Amino acid sequence: MNKGLKRLLIGRPLKNEEIQGEKFGVLWGLPILSSDAISSVAYAGQEILLVLLPIAGFLAFKYMAYISLAIIVLLGILTLSYRQTIDCYPNGGGAYVVAKENIGLIAGVTAGSSLCISYILTVAVSIASGVQQIVSAFPVLKPYTSYLCVLVIILMTLGNLRGIKESAKLFSLPTYFFIFSILLMLVVGVIKIFAGYKPEPLVLDESSFQPVTLFLILSAFTNGCAALTGVEAVSNSVPNFKAPSTKNAKAVLALLSTLVLIVFGGTSIIVNYYPINPEKGAMLVQIAQMIFGRNIFFYTITVLSFAILVLAANTAYFGFPNLISVMAREGYVPRQLSMRGDRLSFSNGIISLSAIAALLILIFNANVTRLIGLYAIGVFISFTLSQAGMFFRWIKNKGDNWVVKAAINGFGAFVTFVIVIVIAITKFTMGAWIVVIVIPVMIFLMLKVKTHYMALHKQLKISPEELKDVSIPRDVYTNRVIVPIASINRASIRALRYARTISDNVVAFNVSIDEEQGKKVREKYNMLDTDIPLIVKYSPFRRVVEPLLMFIESAEYDYQKGDIITVILPQFVVKRWWNNALHNHTRAIIERQLIRHKHIVICTMPLQMKDDDRVLKSHKYK
Amino acid sequence: MNKGLKRLLIGRPLKNEEIQGEKFGVLWGLPILSSDAISSVAYAGQEILLVLLPIAGFLAFKYMAYISLAIIVLLGILTLSYRQTIDCYPNGGGAYVVAKENIGLIAGVTAGSSLCISYILTVAVSIASGVQQIVSAFPVLKPYTSYLCVLVIILMTLGNLRGIKESAKLFSLPTYFFIFSILLMLVVGVIKIFAGYKPEPLVLDESSFQPVTLFLILSAFTNGCAALTGVEAVSNSVPNFKAPSTKNAKAVLALLSTLVLIVFGGTSIIVNYYPINPEKGAMLVQIAQMIFGRNIFFYTITVLSFAILVLAANTAYFGFPNLISVMAREGYVPRQLSMRGDRLSFSNGIISLSAIAALLILIFNANVTRLIGLYAIGVFISFTLSQAGMFFRWIKNKGDNWVVKAAINGFGAFVTFVIVIVIAITKFTMGAWIVVIVIPVMIFLMLKVKTHYMALHKQLKISPEELKDVSIPRDVYTNRVIVPIASINRASIRALRYARTISDNVVAFNVSIDEEQGKKVREKYNMLDTDIPLIVKYSPFRRVVEPLLMFIESAEYDYQKGDIITVILPQFVVKRWWNNALHNHTRAIIERQLIRHKHIVICTMPLQMKDDDRVLKSHKYK
Membrane spanning segments where (chains A, B) (predicted)? Predict the structure, then answer.
């Protein structure tokens, strides 16, 4: 990217020391980390209704209240369980770390893969739902839903490439506004009910009504479980908190649960009095329209719902690159993913996250119902492994009150494991099968990558004992230089002169397509004042590398085992990017083939070209 | 591509000497070079009818006969004109060469661009029409038309990558079979007419009938002009003929014209007695069904029509890469396009041709009528320039009978120029506008490329006088070496040892993210038995190249103008392709940035990695 443009879009680079300044306290930590859980009010309830309403009719609203209650209980269990994780892992206790340390490698890698998938789906689901809020209020935008989603993801990517703190402040206030406006809506809604408000009757297609099965209830319940996906973000992010980070993190976790209880529980109850049809648009937008009418409050709720869902997606922009970089440092994913970008964000991770989420949105046509089928399973696998890890930790390490603590984590692990099974069954055909296939594939690849790094390390490492005996003598290698030349010009002269400075054993090497061309090159070469011999080979196959390798192996060249052969290749460095299309192809091909031979070192000699127009002030074509 | 697979698909590589054996005589030259013109019987007539029938009704068949007559007259003029080109250009007289030599550079480049476009459209139109023949006989295939076209292009690409002669023999016999079967069809058709055959009456929608305008006649005529696109192929391909190549080429040109006269003229007349509806499928297939019924002869005609249209497309696979390589040698298109591939075909040209033609087919949905709007204009621009070039040549060089010869070429140029104007007007909105825009763009780019090569040449060339004074002294440069090391391992030791052999002025250079890491590296380095100094720099921005460049410019390093600095970078050469994703990223980034500095030479030191499983016979993850 152009440097100026890059600066404008993502800001100036930050020093390592500036990382400390990027950390957040409770005030900024809450909106950043709670938005995922709180924002789920915008789709979890709606997706519950979407399952129940066509089958159960108006009874759906009742069922929904009970299901929401179950989810809130589950939230309580998770909150207690994760408080303990925060205490034990002040450096960040993601499911990957906890499962790997306390259960084993495979458990850790499994948790890591599951988390990767759930971060990606957090972005996809939240953005799809966020845009759904907008298009529900402005139906004219409906045909552009997918494009709007991708646009939002692009903007978020740029925002996150700018770095942690600025994006936090940039994006945080809406969470508070959202919470406040939902509370206001609930209060006004309750007042209207007591004032005797009667909603327009909801017209349902009764022909599809059927007896409500347990499968149906469970399917609705698993949709609602998407509401719990923010909890692990807090325990992952402990080191991002200002000191005392553990205490701050626990405060944020407690506040988060309370807010979800009020907002999610409140809307699940109030929708009984303001019945909506989830197929006609976003639930929150419809409730707001009934409670406020189509005025400034309505538009505020719509925009804030969109905003908090964007914030929820943003949660993943902390979690995902962090996780990837931890796994990269340990060698389970490619190392280059562990490098921080210019602005201390993990740029590679951010960009991959955005790209895959955008792809999913395009594939699933930004349909929240279809995306949610993939969502919860990954989250609950990591919940299970993380809490199981904590359970084993207590068993092993003991400590104060360890039996109670083990019971809390163990119960949490048990409950979430049951939910994993329920999701796998009820959502299998709705997308969960993809996750069920992808996770083992990811585990396999991660182990492959790790094996490779281990093999590499073993080949490269020198033990301290060996190190003492290592010397760098002047004459360990005999260095011999070959300068391939196509013709005698300034580039080849420069290469020959350089060759002369690095070795006394230099040959110039020419491959000619026909005898005549070779003769010409030799004639010109003989005019030079040099003792470097020129070898001319005729290449019947119009190839360059093969004759060179054959020459090296020939008796004529007398290659001795252990000699290093340096091949000098000029590379034209041109002023305009399109000029590159015209150069260096042969060089690249030669380099790619020679690099496979371990006794050959390739020297790339840059040759700066001047601008065409400066060289040719006036010229005629010929 | 995998080497074994490549051999299987495109055969063994050929030597330069084998080119001679790839040339063809009249017997093989005729089918290869005539197929384009002869195959046009399959679509030119049909596209004439498609314009006229909805407007003029049954009168269309009469008009078509007259239009075909005009086209045959035009063919006669072109044949006479191009005979003279073959005589004057035994090394291949493509429009590019003739126009450039006799009119000027811009005319040449214009002809070159036009020819490029017409070669591409020869492939697109012929394949689209070929597949249309098949789907007309087997309507069940109709939904897959575009895919079938792309499949055929892929197969042709492979065939042509195999080389000239084999593809000729592989593809040639069908032309003779096609000619024979069309003659048989015409004879049987005439016999049936005399035997009193009455076709089923053709039902036309009379509501669309309108008075026939000159514009309409001209539009139909320009569609028919697509029939003439094979003529220039012969004069381009003179050097591909066996000796005496001029005589053989002229014989082929004469035979070609006679065959087009019989086949194209014959079907244009007979369709008056076997009226078909061109909107219901391919004309030839429909006529064959009426004459033969749906039996073995019908299927034979269908398959042979398809086959000769594939052959017609194949014409472009000789012409296009030949043209491109001529222009590449002269520097108007990127030089790498002039290199012959393994099997003496011009692989790059073949692949580009296929790719663009396939793209056009996908864009225009394999619709012959829409593609033909782009086709004829390019061909006729090159006809005009080629014959105008010949005209100027006679004026300048004179010679025997030059007035008559100039008159023939001049008349040809005039007629084809008028047709260019007619096509530009009648087909402007039907696709000709694309060509009208693309040709000037291509001319501009070609001149830009030429300018660049000229500027490059000027900067590189050393005149023979200068050459005598050029020496290659041992000490023209002071060579200083920097070895960037991330840690002390076998790769860095190897690089340091190599550095020692090429210079006495070596420094090891480490960039550390934090002070602690730098200290560790220094500790290990100090254990080495070496006098090479280690420089450790702390990089606050987590960058590698900037600190290195800053160090080079610092007083500490004491860089003197004219010194060359060699930077040695290890590159891991891994056994499995996917391992590459895990390595060499940092190296590539460093190389790309350093290459911009002219005093820096980059040495890539390959380090062969063993296979993971061999290194780690038994291992535990950690």
Answer: 63-82, 103-124, 144-164, 176-197, 209-231, 252-276, 296-320, 344-366, 372-394, 406-425, 431-449
